[in-house]
Each structure stands twice: as structure tokens, then as C-alpha cells.
Amino acid sequence: MSAVFDSALLEAASATSDELAAALAVPPSVDPADDYGPTSPRWRDQSLSKGAAGVAVLHGLRAQHRLGGQEPLHAWLARATRDDLSAGPGAGLWFGAPAIAFALATAAPGSYRGAMTRLDASITQLVHTRLEAAHTRMDHGLRPSPNEFDLVRGLTGLGAYLLTRDPDGDLVRRVLAYLVRLTEPVTASDEAGPSAPGWWTADTPSGSYDPRFDAGHANLGMAHGIAGPLALLAISARRGVQVPGHTAAIDTISRWLDTWQHTAPAGPWWPERITLDELRTGRSLQGGPARPSWCYGTPGLARAQQLAALAVGDRTRQQATEDALARCLADENQLASITDPALCHGWAGLVATAWHAANDAATPTLATHLPHLLEQLLRHARDLPPGALPGLIEGSAGIALTLHTVATAAIGTPGGWTTCLLLN
Questions:
Q1: In the beta sheet, which residues pair with residue 301?
Q2: Which pick of 62, 96, 314, 395 has the fewest CB atoms within 10 Å?
Q3: Phi/psi at 327 (5° precision)
Q4: pLDDT in tens, 330-389
Q5: Is 89 exposed, middle or buried (0-12, 13-18, 19+ CB in 10 A)?
């Protein structure tokens, strides 16, 4: 796929990656002292998204390509593990013991064997606890929290780690069986209300209060919504790891997303969330497509559905999702809404998502958009706001790593670092 870029663009990507990585060579001096509160900076050390764990992934992969020594990797791993690792309710693929395990397995494969053994034991116990709680919740007909099933902290993220770490094990199949059960419908509200998908949550979205979500909602996105479980089910099926009901679950989620697909002159799009009123009327009130990001916009949703189509051999759906993504990438109005260079919301995530989709596409159309997207990422790579954190998902480490993997033509490697985004 690197053939779609000219040599000058690839050289610029490599040089910019080198520059950003050099700025992250040494962890900054931060002394949280005895502050163990929820706002303490010490918690960011264990974060793949916003902290040291994510920066270690960057330096580990660069070292594997002989673009740097081991010193930055060891320095950031030491920072990531300077406190006891979280394996409690807040832990997940992007934070705590699972994030550190993912960082070690990706950045230093085959090393730290003693630490990996202890981390895997901790993750195994965490998954057992989460699965038991989830099935108990289902047995009582209750609605889930996003933290139960999502990619960031939930069983989808833990399943993604297990699929890479131990694909032949029983535990990953138990996670997949849970996701199959998650597709069984629930009642949308405590009062007599419509049937809702099994991922309908009573929680309100994070951020400012909005009364529209008092009766719960369904999140469609990759990070916190049902696109994440769909992507994991599809990726595991493509790798030959399946459980009873697997294909039916993929079909259930895919058809539900079809229900909420909207059409516009610039192409199909999906809303970020569905409220109870929208569920009752069958029509989303979102006025148009969200910014074209990995986490909530058309790119992430299209990639999840493309993976699902590939997993079940549905060429019609594959063509439709690739067309939706291509039309999104061709719409300058949508692209103009991107104000962030990072992976989660911005240009780096768009480049990584489009690259993977183009790598699997039935036609070369998607690939024709990649040079323009890379140019935009290079133009905005240094545009993080002052004080931005250096992590993988939301910081400069992810920008540097995306540029590095484009320049080295390694971004499509199955089971690589983009596992934490469920892109392949």
C-alpha cells in the first residue's frame, strides 16, 4: 500500500515521526507526591491513551525497526509501572494492568516474561470477574453500563488483548460468547417501553448533563459503542476463532446499524447515539454526520461494518461500506470539521482507519484518498493544544507512530498496535 505515496511524502512522514519521537525521548519530571486522588497525574502513567504506557509502545516499535535504542522504551515503561497497577473496576485495555500488558506485548515481545506471566494472571482474574457480573446482570434482565462491554474499559477491549495474546485459549471464546449474548434484546426503560438492543445502557454519556439521555441510550461508536464489539466479532471470525451464534450476532448488529443509517448528498452516515424518543420514532434527530473520526464518525463505523462483511463473505455490504467511507473521505466539508491531529478524534485516526480499509477493499478507490489524508496529517501533526498529554490514543505518541508505520509500510500488520483501535 506504500506505493500509493510518492517518496517525498514518505520521507516527510518518516522525518516528522522522528521529530515527534525525539521530543518524547525522556519522560517529563512529574512528582505527584502523596496525591492519589482521581485527578492526580500519577494515574496517567498507566494509560495507553494519555500517558506513559502509550509512549512506550511508540518507542518499542521504533526500536524494533532500529530507529532508536532501548533507553526511551525502558524509561517510559519504568514511568508506567512506578505505582501499583490497577486491576479493578476502572481497568481495561486502555488503562491499568491490561494497558501495561498490551504495551509490553507490543513494544517488547518475548521480553519481561515474568512480568507478563503475572499480568496475564491478573487479566484472567479480571475477565472472569467481569464475565460473571455481566451474565448475572443479563440473568436479571438489567441494562449494561458501557464499561461492561466497550473497547476502552470493557470486555471488548479485554477480548481484543486475549485474541492477540492467547487466540487458542478458552477465555477469549468466553468473551466472544458474552458478546453474542449481548445482542439479545432488553427493555429500553423501567416503564413499559419498546424492546431495545442488548447494548442499550441506562448510563448517561460522559460530559455535560443532557436530559435526552435520562432514559438511556445506544452508542454506535468504536470506542464506547456497539461498533467495537462488531469489529472484535468480525476480526476473530476472520482469524478462525468463533463460538456458537457468532455469525448471527454479526448479522444482528449489522442489521441494527442499517436501521440507523442515514443518506445525504455526501454519502451515508450514522448518528453517534440513539435516545429513547428516537428509538420509539425510528428516526435520529442528529442533523448530519459527525466529524469523520475513528471513534464516532463514518470512518470507524464503516471500517467495523467492512470487517463484518469480510468475515461473513457479504460482498454487497462490503461494497456499500467502502462506498460510504470513500464518499466521506471525498467530502471536504466533513474533513474540514477535523481540528485534532491525534488518533481518537483526528487526522492520525483517519489515516490509520482509511489505510486498513483500503488494504482490504475490493477496489482501489479508497487508496486514492490516502495521499491527501497523509498530507493533512503532516500539516497538522504538531497542532495539539498546549499542555496536551503525550499518550498513544490522544497524544503525540500516536501521531508519531501512525507516521512511522505508514513510512515503514507496517500499518496493516494483523495483531499489531492498532489492535487497541480494533482496526485489524
A1: none
A2: 314
A3: -70, -35
A4: 999 999 999 999 999 999 999 999 999 999 999 999 999 999 999 999 999 999 988 888
A5: middle
